Amino acid sequence: MKQDCRIGLVQMESMVGETERNLQNITYLAEIAQKQEISLLCFPECALDGYSPHDATAIANPLDSKWIKQLRECSMDLGITLLVGMVERRSGEHRPYISQVILSPGEELKVYRKVHLGRSELEYFSPGDHFPIFSAHGTSFAVGICWDWHFPETAAIYSLKGAEVLFAPHASPLVAGDRKELWLRYLGARAYDNSVYIGACNLVGSNGKSKKFSGGTLVIGPKGELVEQTEIGNEGIYTAILSAERINHIRRPERTSMRDSFFLADRRKELYHELIELDILDK
């Protein structure tokens, strides 16, 4: 990490199919984030279009839609990188994707497509097939969406490919239980084992149909410690400054004598080809 990075994690309500309303809320929160000098602003899963698997095909939008064009303009005007969840329609494909678009000033649009679909999503969405790494504001980062983080391989792959910050946007309903309590059961291990920061956020309130979401934001440090979690209330942004000095110290074994900082150096990547994709071994 080249410098300290101020990130923002959004807790917001998103109505299914009300893309214009959701977009206005996203741009409003982005304007607030710019005033707070946030560099990377992560919105929850499907924030742009709303989360409802049964309605996915009807509400999906392509990456060249007017909504995405407006988000690109927003990113450029404010000078911040936006990570926005959406339901993505791709030409010629039967089912849409649960995607997170990455919009950085002056850069081409990039996208992560949810690799691990939940059981209730399999009938309605297509799974992604790639674990991309992104870079902006001197920080290397990656995205996993909700269910992705229940699989340890996701964090390991990203860490081996050089990601320093992992974003975890969610659309977790109230019936799943207290989101922050659940996150602490496994996200701390993902951060500690892979020497990364993890920032998580969730939808809150109603989706305008049958689902209600529990909200929640938190940041976990590269030693698995809870940096801070806040009770935002309804909608808002949790802000955290991620220390470049700290993560660089941990991820570069030659700079420290602490044994638990050598996880990355001691991995036997040459033997992991049965676990992870071969393209990682070339990184």
Automatic annotation (TrEMBL):
Pfam families xrefs: CN_hydrolase (PF00795)
Protein source organism: Desulfosporosinus nitroreducens
Lineage: Bacteria, Bacillati, Bacillota, Clostridia, Eubacteriales
Protein name as it appears in the record: Amidohydrolase
Coiled coil (residue ranges): none
Domain CN hydrolase: 5-244
UniProt entry keywords in alphabetical sequence: Hydrolase
Signal peptide as annotated in the record: none
UniProt entry tagged with the keyword Membrane: no
Superkingdom, natural source: Bacteria
InterPro entries linked: Aliph_Amidase/BUP, C-N_Hydrolase, C-N_Hydrolase_sf
Entry-linked PROSITE patterns: CN_HYDROLASE
